[in-house]
Design a protein that fits this description.
single chain, alpha/beta, eight-stranded mixed β-sheet, four-stranded antiparallel β-sheet, 13 helices, 35% helix, globular, binds adenosine-5'-diphosphate, binds aspartic acid, binds magnesium ion, ATP-binding, Aspartokinase, amino-acid biosynthesis, Asp_kin_monofn
Length: 411
């Protein structure tokens, strides 16, 4: 008999019919004798709807109150799923994050889980009940409701699996596993049998939203066996593993991630003195704006250009800060661009292969796609390009690195 934590995402609980289907599925697992803890998201679109409501009141809603509100989405689905289970003769009980006591820090809208009280859950499981827990939410030490950031139900699932030492954490969603790239963008994308935590972490942080980054971090740290599966189709899904098997078939690149969430800022004609990078980025970080890629050009006539990217939500803020800096340090001008996208190739195979980056650049050159910025780490190469070429770039790279599925194997 196994203890399994199953997380069902928004589309999987997007209607009453689907919730009934999830209940049927959970019932089958129960009949096999497994203990089940289910984590659910809000019905698809609900979290967005709630956020939009708040924005009708204020552009920047008070984070504490926003959390009180958006956490209701999950409260609806846990109750509906518990009802659907009970209707089927499966004893079940639902809990909000607060009721379980999923203790988090107080960083509203992006809280981190600190501790989970597993007593109630264990007692329910022992009494033969399926426990249904609201994803995406917790409570801080003062009793305030918190939420874990978009996609946070994945993290609730993995954290519960870690706390309960579950045999597996299964993330059920609307695709049948982790693919070489987003199958909605590249129909020739292939499902991966396995992917390492390290690669999955890179993919998630570079834009593949199939798993929330923190859920992968958690799973790696606590060694939680993690699998991504389709909610309503049978299949092995994708296992996220620790081991980096040295197999002959190990491809150089495991996947391609991309994101359209960044914007680029350039400050030109900066007097090139020691400390200039700090003078430019210090005020940005003081304004609580995270910087991703950074490029500083070689200087001409003792002035240089300095470019970096930030989240698009921070663009206007960053622009203001940078304009102030430009005045202070006597830089020539500040320019910005929001129509950019970042494309990254990821793979542990890069460690043992040379020439991966140049192969990437060659593939982009063949499509006449101009590269604006480059950054590399041990297992990834990222480039910033014009947003309108994003899909073309991803497809070209998918082919160049031999990731395409054999013809006719779409879906
Ligand atoms: P859920 O609501 O179940 O949490 P998400 O929408 O958060 O589902 O995540 C699933 C989606 O992630 C898929 O529909 C797919 O479009 C997208 N996705 C992005 N990159 C990948 C990838 N490499 N493999 C699989 N899905 C991906
Ligand atoms: N409902 C939340 C969101 O839409 C959390 C989740 O689905 O994981 O981001
Ligand atoms: Mg998700």
């Amino acid at each position: 008999m196994a203890l399994i934590v199953q997380k069902f995402g928004g589309t999987s609980v997007g209607s009453v019919e689907r919730i009934e289907m999830v209940a049927e599925k959970v019932k089958k697992f129960r009949e096999n004798g497994d203990d089940i803890v289910v984590v659910v998201s809000a019905m698809s679109g609900e979290t967005n709807r709630l956020i939009a409501l708040a924005k009708q009141i204020s552009d920047q809603p008070v984070p504490r109150e926003l959390d009180v509100m958006v956490s209701t989405g999950e409260q609806v689905t846990i109750a509906l799923l518990a009802m659907a289970l009970i209707k089927r003769g499966v004893p079940a009980v639902s809990y909000t994050g607060n009721q379980v006591r999923i203790l988090t820090d107080s960083a509203h809208t992006k809280a981190r889980i600190l501790q989970i009280d597993d007593q109630k859950l264990r007692a329910d499981l022992k009494a033969g009940r399926v426990v249904v827990v609201a994803g995406f939410q917790g409570v801080d030490e003062h009793g305030n409701i918190t939420t874990l950031g978009r996609g946070g139900s994945d993290t609730t699932g993995v954290a519960l699996a870690a706390a309960l030492k579950a045999d597996e954490c299964q993330i059920y969603t609307d695709v049948d596993g982790v693919y070489t790239t987003d199958p909605r963008v590249v129909p020739k994308a292939r499902r991966l049998e396995k992917i390492t935590f390290e690669e999955m972490l890179e993919m998630a942080s570079l834009g593949s939203k199939v798993l929330q980054i923190r859920s992968v971090e958690f799973a790696g740290k606590y060694n939680v066996p993690l699998r991504v599966l389709h909610s309503f189709q049978e299949g092995p899904g994708t296992l996220i593993t620790i081991d980096e098997e040295e197999s002959m078939e190990q491809p150089i690149i495991s996947g391609i991630a991309f994101n359209r969430d960044e914007a680029k800022l350039t400050i030109r004609g900066v007097p090139d003195n020691p400390g200039v990078a700090f003078k430019i980025l210090g005020p940005i970080s003081a304004a609580n704006i995270e910087v991703d890629m950074i490029v500083q050009n070689i200087s001409h006539d003792n002035t240089t250009d300095f470019t970096f990217t930030v989240h698009r939500n921070d663009y206007l803020n960053a622009m203001q800060v940078l304009q102030n800096t430009a005045r202070e340090i006597g830089a020539r001008e500040v320019i910005g661009d929001t129509d950019i996208a970042k494309v990254s190739i990821v793979g542990v195979g890069m460690r043992s292969h040379a020439g991966v980056a140049s192969r990437m650049f060659e593939a982009l050159a063949k499509e006449s796609i101009n590269i604006q910025m480059i950054s590399t780490s041990e297992i990834k190469v990222s480039v910033v390009i014009e947003e309108k070429y994003l899909e073309l770039a991803v497809r070209a790279l998918h082919t160049a690195f031999e990731l395409d599925a054999p013809a006719r194997q779409v879906e």
